[in-house]
UniProtKB/TrEMBL annotation:
Positions of Mg(2+) 1 binding: E92, D114, L116
GO biological process, one term: fructose metabolic process
Protein name: Fructose-1,6-bisphosphatase class 1
UniProt GO cellular component terms: cytosol
Ligand binding (Mg(2+) 2): D114, D117, E281
Amino acid sequence: MSVRCTSLGQFIKEAQNQGCIDEELAALIESVAHACTSIATVVAQGTLATTDGVATEINVQGEAQKPIDVLTNAIMLETCERSGALRGMVSEEMAEPYSLPPGSPRGRHLLVFDPLDGSSNVELNMPFGTIFSVLRAPEDAGELLPAHFLQRGRQQLAAGFALYGAATMLVLTLGAGVHGFTLDRTTGTFLLTHPDLRIAETTCEFAVNASNERFWEPPVRRYVEECIEGRAGPRRIDFNMRWIAAMVAEVHRILLRGGLFMYPRDRKVPARPGRLRLLYEASPMAMLVEQAGGAASTGREPILDIVPEVIHQRVPVILGSREEVERLVRYHEIFDRGEALVFRTPLFNTRTLFQADANEAEGLPCR
Ligand SMILES: O=P(O)(O)OC[C@H]1O[C@](O)(COP(=O)(O)O)[C@@H](O)[C@@H]1O
Ligand SMILES: [Mg+2]
Ligand SMILES: [Mg+2]
C-alpha cells in the first residue's frame, strides 16, 4: 500500500498492533479526528457558520469569546465524551474541568484542548486550528479535580493539531515521530500525506509579533535585532520574518520548512509571564516540535519540564529549529548571569567591541 493511501484509521490500528497505544487511546484519537472533521465542515461556511461574529462573552482568560469559539468547544466536548476513553476535559473556553455527564462511558484518559487557536483569523478567512493533548487520568476514580490535569508536558501520551486552511490537516504525535494527514473531503477521511516530519536544525526564518518589541527582555531583543541586521550584522545572513497570528499555522510551517516561533515573556501585561497557555497550547506544540527533532523552551527551561500550577497557566514560548532555540537559551543565560547584552542601536549603528567579541567568545556561529 502506498503511503498516500494510508488512512488515519489504518495508521492508528497499526500503532495499536505494535503496542504503541491501547484501544482506548486509539478510540480517543479517532474521536478527536472526527470532531476536527466536523469543525472543518462548520468553519468552511465562513461567517455563515454562526449568526454573527461579534463577541458575546468574556472567557476565563479575560478574552472575548466569539460564537465560533463556543460552537467549536461544544463540538469537541460532545464528540469526544462519547469515545469511552475519557475521565474529563479541560478547554481554553471553560473555567473549570469538564466532567462527563452521568451515564457517559468512562475511560482512563484526560483531554486538554484549545478548540479554536487563532480565532482572530476566522472572520478574515485566514488559517486557524484546534490544538489537543492527551494525558493519563490518575488511577483513583474519585471526583475530577483540576489537579489531575497538572502534569508535565513529558507525560503527554499524544498531542496534535488540526489546521483549517485551504486544506484541512491533522498533525499528530503518539510519542514516536510526527505525522501529517490531509482531509480527503470526498470521503471524509484523513490520509497520511506527510509521514515522519522533521524540523530543519538551522533556519533563517523567524516569527514573532514585533509590535511587542518594547516589552521584551534583552535576550529576545538582541536575538531579533541580530536577525533584522541580516547580512550586515553578526549573523551574516539575511533573515525572513512571518506572522500569521495563529500558533497552529506557525508551527505547521516550521514542521514543513523549519523556522523559529516565539511568544516570549514580555512586560505588556506585567501580571502574566507569557501570552500562550501551557496545557493546551505550549505543551502539545512542544511535544510535536521535540518529536520532530526541534526544541521548545521558555528561554529558561524546556517547556515539557514545567510542572503546571494551574490549568490555565501561561508561559513564554520559544520553539522550532534547534540551533535557533539554543541560541536564544544562551542569550537568556548570559543575561541572567548579569552580563551585558550590548545592542547596536538603529540610531547610531554602533558596533561595540564587546558585541563583536561576545559572538566569538561564546562560540556562536557567525554565518
Ligand atoms: O497576533 P497576536 O495578537 O500577538 O496573537 C497571536 C497569538 O494569539 C493566539 O491566537 C492565541 O490563541 P487563541 O486564538 O486560542 O486565543 C496564538 O495562536 C497566536 O500566536
Ligand atoms: Mg490558542
Ligand atoms: Mg482559542
